[in-house]
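FW: tagging you since you asked about this chain on Friday. Here's the raw sequence from the shared folder, copied in full. Didn't touch anything.
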Amino acid sequence: MLNTLLSNPVAVLFLGMSLSWIASTLGHYWHKVRKLELEVTLKLEMVQRGMSAEDIRMVLEARPSSGTNRQHSTSEQSVPVA
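HL: got it, structure written out here
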């Protein structure tokens, strides 16, 4: 049965695409859960340290939101060498 299934190129393609989609979906949601878990842990630690809600909000807003839109200071920018 398995031998017959694996000898069919369409079945192998479908199986490969299905496994790829499943792995991608699981990885995406695992990342989301882990990120939320880290955010909750950070907030809990700040509350346990006695930080006010305003202090926690300022800390969370100070974090870079994503690596794609970050601006670098002039010392980090590359300067062409003549």
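FW: The mean pLDDT is 83.
HL: agreed, and The chain is about 65% helix and 0% strand.
FW: great, closing this out.
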